[in-house]
Design a protein that fits this description.
single chain, mainly alpha, about 5% strand, 4 strands, two-stranded parallel ribbon
């Protein structure tokens, strides 16, 4: 019995040494895991760089395409402008370089570009045909600078509305003749006060005394610019039109809040206000401009 115990002790010691050596040596699987993580980080970095450069190239492509389109549009506009100038100078019968255009909204093809001739033909002013175009706001009457006399010259302008426009934009609460101030509007439901400040939109006219849909919009109650069937049937349907085949506009068609008086002429010479200049100033300006 004593011999067996003595023999078993060395065996236990040897097993303990082998186990300690196994724990101290690096595992083969742990080395493979480290390499895999490193490879994944490298692949992630390469993918990120690739995506960054691909997005950069895509934006460069869009920028180049937009630039080409812009240049093409400028050249097309310049070419058509030259054609229209020559056509107007020579007083040709038509401005269409490719034959008769069946629709006013049909474009001209100039290379790969499309150009529209904007405006209504003076030879055909039928109000039932829709057209589109540019409107010079400075050619309209400004609600913020027009005098009472100017406002009263507008078609179908009520005296009360013309005076109310002056009272609405002035800074005081003094009611002018036939006009309206806060005391008038406070009696309405809902009540409000006079603005006593410049107009910011022509739609403010709907708030004024003397204004109505008939006065402001005329027969064009839906404000689409053409004569619809219900706007040309007399008293059958609103509005109550005269059934004459003509589209009668309201006051909103003739007024603006954007119009400005030009300060300079085409040669960039400052223009003279005849209403606020004396004779000596006019004489000096005439001598300076060689007139």
């Amino acid at each position: 019995m004593r011999k067996r115990r003595e023999n078993s002790e060395p065996v236990q010691q040897m097993n303990t040494i082998h186990l300690q050596n196994d724990f101290n040596q690096p595992s083969h699987f742990s080395r493979k895991g480290s390499v895999l993580i490193l490879v994944l980080w490298i692949v992630f970095g390469l993918v990120t760089v690739t995506l960054y450069f691909s997005h950069s190239m895509f934006f460069e492509y869009l920028s180049a395409e937009n630039r080409m389109t812009s240049v093409q549009a400028d050249r097309a506009i310049e070419g058509v402008a030259r054609y229209v100038k020559v056509a107007l100078t020579n007083q040709v019968d038509t401005l269409d370089p490719i034959g008769e255009i069946s629709s006013r909204t049909e474009p001209w093809l100039v290379g790969d570009a499309m150009v529209w001739a904007i405006g209504r033909d003076t030879a055909d002013t039928r109000p039932t045909i829709p057209v589109f175009g540019l409107i010079d706001e400075s050619a309209k009457l400004s609600l913020n600078s027009a005098t009472l006399e100017m406002l009263q010259e507008l078609p179908n302008m009520p005296v009360e509305l013309a005076a109310a426009i002056i009272d609405w934009r002035d800074e005081d609460d003094e009611m002018s003749e036939n006009g309206a101030e806060s005391e008038t509007y406070l009696l309405r439901e809902p009540s409000y006060e006079a603005k006593n400040a410049p107009f910011e939109s022509v739609e403010e006219l709907f708030l004024l005394a003397g204004a109505s849909t008939e006065v402001l919009l005329g027969e064009d109650t839906n404000r689409n610019g053409i004569l619809d069937p219900f706007e040309n049937d007399g008293a059958l349907n609103p509005p109550d039109d005269d059934q004459d085949g003509e589209l009668d506009f309201g006051i909103l068609e003739y007024v603006t809040v954007y119009g400005q008086r030009p300060r300079y002429d085409l040669e960039q010479n400052e223009m003279v206000d005849l209403n606020n200049s004396d004779t000596e100033d006019l004489r000096e300006d005439s001598l300076h401009n060689g007139q």
